[in-house]
Amino acid sequence: MSVDEVLAEVEKDRPFYRRSSGGVTLGGGEPLMQYRFTAELLESAQRVYLHTALETCGHAPWEHFEAVLKHVDLLYIDLKHMDPIRHKELTGKSNRLIIANLRKVLSVKPPQDVIVRVPVIPGYNDSIENLEDTAKFVAELGFRLIELIPYHRFGVSKYTQYGMVYQLSGVDTIPQAYIDELRKMVTNLGLTEMTGSI
């Protein structure tokens, strides 16, 4: 589809955006893989006064990321693990580029327009040490908003329906008491925690 075709589809729901203060959110896959299209689509949406949001893992050359950020009203960026080796084990990529990009984001966006997301997955990245290191790093950079996203199993049935193997089949949900403890920790570091789930 062309940018104009996508925008025409988006415009069909404008009455809902007016009622909900919503707009256009581009998410994954990974929108920065097609950064030119993404930038053009978001710029076109802003031109017709639609709020724009981007959900990204942040793993892209800064030049591509910056070109898109100019047209983003609200940025959601993932930070899955602070340790680059463990991050690579979990995702296939080191976090070095993501960390470098996070260090530059506030040169383009004010902190209130950025939410750093941390999916919290038992046995993968849910240790107090990792999450405390993550929250401290986010706070030290000057971000204000963090979203701890507790793992859930809602997607298992879809994998079964499509005959796909669910890679986290042995992973259970996180006890609410532990999530509450983590949320208290990040707020004690001066961050505002946005409640979410994956």
**Helical amount:** 40-55%
Proportion of residues in extended strands: 15-25%
Mean pLDDT equals: 94
Number of helices: 9
Oligomer state equals single chain
Count of β-strands? 6
Order of helices and strands: HHEHEHEHHEHEHHE
Radius of gyration computed on alpha carbons? 18 Å
Through-space gap between termini: 28 Å
Strand order of the largest sheet: 1-2-3-4-5-6
Biggest sheet architecture: 6 strands, parallel
Poorly predicted tracts of residues: none
Gross morphology is globular
| Computed structural class | alpha/beta
Structure commentary:
The protein is globular, with a radius of gyration of 18 Å. Strand 4, helix 7 and strand 5 (145-150) form a beta-alpha-beta unit. Helix 1 (3-11) crosses helix 3. The model has no long low-confidence stretch (mean pLDDT 94). With 198 residues, the protein is of the alpha/beta class. The chain contains nine helices and six strands; from the N terminus they run H-H-E-H-E-H-E-H-H-E-H-E-H-H-E.
